[in-house]
Design brief:
The structure is a homodimer. Chain A is an alpha/beta fold. The first copy, chain A, has one domain: 3-Layer(aba) Sandwich (Rossmann fold), CATH 3.40.50. Chain A has a six-stranded parallel beta sheet, sandwiched between helices. In chain A, α5 crosses α9. Chain A is globular and about 70 Å long. The N and C termini of chain A lie far apart (about 45 Å).
């Protein structure tokens, strides 16, 4: 398995960065979360003049055996149909990535369909979908390690091509079930607090989903310390590959943009393996999916956006990108009190 | 005085727009607030294919006599210094407007300084700052009407030049005091719930500001029905001109992007005069300034962003622009289930 070592942030420049921020022509702290972003990105890149280059959205797609248990209102075939929609440019993530000049790559981590080659499609298929985790692990240990290694390699390839910010999206019918189980075990939270309506279950559908996942959790009977076994048990291929890509991104000191519930569940696995990864992450959007807010709290994460979206695909991360860019821009381009000849506070000012 | 007549939204296309949104390749409602925006903008423009053209940021600047009472940690001269900073491209709003391709115009509504002509500066000076509203009205009735008329004319000029979305920002040392008094009288809320730390008052400064504003409110003893007299009493010139520009923008069916506390206070005045204006507004950001959230609640407004900013200048509105653009883009550019060949929900789906 790829050996990940994610260092803590280099804080050598922290106070100089803060000073630079405080000298901008604005009241102290008046740019709020943008100031925190500027401080974070400056530290990640270890410079007073950070830049975001070749922003890239990786959308990982995979199918899930558990989808056969009727826990989603959409048939499994929709995963492949949506991948084709991504390749044809018609999905939400296409629109938002294009608007914000992000490169978009679709990664087939294990969709139950053989796609024709396409310039935006990365064939990294581990299998034709995972096994149902009702009565056996979703994947083998070897498949899981393969997914992690491939994921890390995909991130490295982007970073080698001068990208320093990677956003993570996903597509996979039933993958909220997979994410809910990962969260329940790794955070040690009852499954009822981790499940949600996914793409739109009604009350009866939600109750059925909860009951099925409870059975699966009882069958596997894993605990939070067995991180790799939990990932092997509940999958999916796209989540495991995302874990690898996230670890690879942070290892090479690029910035991670974390979208909704499933991407955050992948990050949970990554953070259990390498806690320092959290310093490299920007949390994009708090999903309407129940469980996401609780998972974010567990990770100590505060997303920048809450637009009541629950689409996945990385759409929240694509929408947040201009705000992250704005943080870098104000740090580089705003005048200081001295350079602009603006009087500073007369002294009763304080950071509020 | 300019005669404003703002019609309600034309709802003829509402259900067709909603149908178009629901046919996009995503679960019902999954784009959350972006769907509400698409519906609103489609109705304002009365089309299924709305476009945002020539987005323009108008930053209104003015000085306030009340600034002499020590209710801001910055000296009055900072208003003019910041206007020069805007003209030199060094302020936060310059950086964010440029990033998002918004035209930026600085309107001198009444700064206590004579500026040299500049291509981005609109000279609309009503006076060299308002009078202190401690013991007399901030402006005359005639000055107030002049400000409204000029403001409406500025909006019309932009719209005639093919702009259909106008964002509102402001600069004026002590203008949170002005906005707090407008809010207190027009919403009939005690001043303590309307004041905040502005650019950074400490506890003692906040107590002093509250006491001074309480005296001013007692002196004028106006009630919520006397809308124009309240605006005349508490000003400022930049706020009155913004009121006129907002009314003019809605009258010509352009979209309004409303930034923080002061712009929202101007909108409060406008909405008291013409309640339909609210249908044309997008609320950008919930300011860190105390009172703003309460004012938004009063207007039934839910801002899209909460980045803990409190800078003014229109910065929140500039930052929200890409999200508004994204709403228009998904409506125009996303594929439908039929066009993309994606299976729809099997029926257990519901909008959550």
């Amino acid at each position: 398995m790829t050996n990940f070592q994610i260092p803590p942030l280099d804080s050598a420049l922290k106070s100089t960065l803060q000073q630079k921020i405080d000298q901008k022509t604005k009241p102290l702290g008046a740019l709020g979360k943008l100031e925190e972003l500027a401080l974070q990105i400056g530290q990640i890149q270890n410079t007073l003049t950070p830049q975001l280059t070749q922003p890239t959205m990786l959308v990982f797609a995979g199918d899930h055996g558990i989808a056969q248990s009727g826990i989603s209102p959409y048939p499994q075939a929709v995963t492949a149909q949506m991948v084709l929609n991504f390749l044809n440019g018609g999905a939400g993530i296409n629109v938002f990535a294009k608007q914000n000049n992000m490169q978009l790559r679709i990664v087939d981590a294990g969709v139950n369909y053989q796609f024709e080659p396409h310039p935006n499609l990365i064939n990294a298929k581990i299998g034709m979908g995972t096994a149902s985790f009702l009565h056996k692990p979703a994947m083998t240990q070897s498949q899981c390690e393969q997914a992690l290694t491939i994921g890390a390699g995909l991130a490295k390839k982007e970073i080698d091509a001068n990208c320093n910010v990677i956003a993570f999206g996903e597509m996979g019918i039933a993958n909220t079930s997979s994410a809910s189980c990962l969260m329940s075990v790794l955070c040690n939270v009852p499954i009822e607090q981790c499940v949600g309506r996914g793409t739109g279950l009604d009350d009866a559908g939600l109750a059925k989903k909860t009951e099925i996942l409870k059975q699966a959790l009882q069958y596997h009977a894993l605990d939070a310390q067995e991180i790799m076994r939990v990932l092997v048990a509940f999958g999916g291929f796209e989540i495991a590959m995302m874990v690898g890509a996230m670890l690879g991104t942070a290892q090479h000191k690029a910035l991670l943009l974390i979208d909704g519930f499933i991407a955050t569940a992948a990050l949970l696995v990554a953070a259990k393996l390498q806690p320092n990864i959290l310093h490299y992450c920007v949390f994009a959007h708090c999903s309407g999916e129940a469980g996401h807010r609780k998972l974010l709290d567990y990770l100590g994460a505060k997303p920048l956006l809450d637009l009541e979206m629950r689409l996945g695909e990385g759409t929240g991360a694509a929408l947040v990108y201009p705000i992250v860019q704005a943080a870098v821009n104000f740090l580089n381009d705003m005048a200081s009190f001295a350079s602009a000849g603006v009087s500073e506070s007369t002294g009763v000012s304080e950071k509020i």
